[in-house]
Structures are given as C-alpha cells and as structure tokens.
Arogenate dehydrogenase (Vigna unguiculata), 271 residues
Amino acid sequence: MLTSSSSSSSQTLRIGIVGFGTFGQFLAKTMIKQGHSLSATSRSDYSDICLQMGIHFYRDVSDFLAADIDVILLCTSILSLSEVVGSMPLASLKRPTLFVDVLSVKEHPRELLLRELPLHSDILCTHPMFGPVTGKNGWKGLTFMYDKVRIRNEDICSSFIQIFSSEGCKMVQMTCEEHDKAAAKSQFITHTIGRTLAEMDIQSTPIDTKGFQELVKLKETMVGNSFDLFSGLYVYNRFARQELENLERALQKVKETLVEKKKEEQGQEKI
C-alpha cells in the first residue's frame, strides 16, 4: 500500500545507531543534514569517523542505552541481529524508546524484537530499498517500506518516517509478511541470478549486446554485496526457498523446451 508522509510536521530526534558500518554511515549523513542529533555504537571502533561526522561514539553499549535517545536504529547484518540484540543490557534503557531495524528481511526482526524488547519499547520494522550506491545522488523516488509493529508514541514514529518522506522517497506501508513474500520474488531472485552469473564467470566481450551488458552489470553489483547479505536473504526469509525451487524448475523447463525443439528440427532435416 502506497502512503504519503505520515505527518506534515516532524521534530528533531536523538537517534542512536547500532552497527556503524557502511549502511549506518550512509543513513547518518542524511539524518545529520536534516538536523537530527546522532550517537552510535558498534563492535568495531568507529570513533574517528564519528568524530569527523559530529557523532558521539559509545564504546560501551550500556552507556549508549543509558543515553537520552528517542530512536535506536539497528543497522546490523541479518546474520548478527539476534546476537547483537540478545547481548544488549536492555535494563540500561532509561525510558520507552522506539527501536527501528533496516534489514532486508522483515519477519525475522519483527519476531525477534517482539520477543526480546521490553513491552514499553516501540517497534518499527523498515526496509530502505536502496543503499550507498543507488542512493548516492539522493533518495528521491527510491522506495522506503515500513510496518508499524508496535507504536504508542506516534509523534516519534512519524518524525522518524518523515526523515525518508521528506527526501522524496516512495513510501510503502505493508506488513512484514507481505514484504518478505514480495522480496523473495524480487530482491532474492535478483541476488541469486547475479551470483549464478558470477559462478559462470561471465565477462564482457567485444560484441556485447545491451542485454548482456546489463547482465554483466547485475553480476558486478550483486557480488559487490556481502555474501552474508545474500545468505541472510535465504536463511531468514521463509519464502525464499520456494522461489529458488521455482527458478530451478523454470530453468529445467526452458532446457527441456530447447531439447525438444532441437529434436523436432533434426527430425525435419531427415524428411
């Protein structure tokens, strides 16, 4: 379901980012530009980068959680989310806080956060359908999916969503289940075909068609993503296995059709 901005007004937020890798830094730049106050914590030491960006970096997660934060943004990998959330000393939270994830699968973080977080914590599951490469020239027209899983403080939630709508994103509100069904047919299949082309080691030739150039570009883009992301799309999206089987059957069907056509042509030649 397409929606417009949740609110025409927004407030300056205090946002804490957990996992300050490439994607966390990418989101932080726009949030800072909009005037929000940011802090971060991560298993790796990003204190120098945070200093350059004007972000307070917490080495101790307890101190991070005890800070006066409106939103905790989880920018970990799919595979590490359970470990990261499970190791958080959530008793350090001083007040109700909105937790937001940005993973490429949605049912997994939804179930995990509902199970692990205090009942007074709000939960917003999101998926920005873009990254540092596709969003390097701005977010206008790029898709932002979200599901208000458990929201009591509508002002904080709306203000966070406004970060993306104000940048011109196409705002799509859908359930986590609807997202994973659609993503298995689109994002997972795209990654799978790109990885398959990489296994075939396809390379540019002097006589490339436009279509083949697009395939080479797809391969290079997909292998540029971490394998953890690809495997996470399979392991934690319950609809991915069926789509992989559908792809295998489709390839087999195409092969059988070609073999049958060859037999027909050879039979015609003998007549």
